[in-house]
Amino acid sequence: MFSSFILFKERNDKMKLYNVEVVETLSRVVEQKANSYEEAEELVSDRYDNQDIVLDYNDLEGTNYKPYPSQMIKEDFVVTFQFRKNTNELFVTDKKGTMNYSCKSKQDLENLIKTYVEDNVELDAVVPEKVFKNKDYER
After folding, report:
1. CA dist., res. 67 & res. 71, Å (int)
2. Does residue 102 surpass a pLDDT of 60?
């Protein structure tokens, strides 16, 4: 994980310093012979720890940018998640009603919850670390 600073110029020509966290995700699927998944995971973990597996730029899955520190949740909310295995459906109920999603895997569930939070949970505004006056900042 890396953090960097980005300056944002407002209309009133006062600059503010914001912390922006840059998160790179590296990912690779590794085949491993073993008697169980747990054993395979342990063997792959050992290989990774011993640097037999080294992820690099070719394994880049994506890059995300987010405020640092993380924004705070603005207000209370209530949400209910109900999963039905026989139909692979996830029902999400909140004050707006009930929404129905197809959900077959753990990854589907994680993505749906992340999307729900991004679309429906209000966050406080990003707070700058420092306000600059024009004389404080020169290129």
Report:
1. 7
2. yes
CB 114 within 8 A of CB 90: no
Say which amino acid occupies 31: E
Cα three-residue angle 101-107-113, rounded to 5 degrees: 50
Radius of gyration (C-alpha) of the chain in whole angstroms: 22
Residue with the larger pLDDT of the pair 11 and 84 = 84
What is the secondary structure of 14-54 as a DSSP string? -EEEEEEEEEEEE--------SSHHHHHHHHHHHHHTTSS-
Which tokens is 58 given? 């070719």
- How far apart (Å, rounded) are the C-alpha atoms in residues 12 and 20? 22
pLDDT tens, residue by residue, 68-80: 888 899 999 999 9
pTM of the predicted model, to two decimals?
A: 0.60
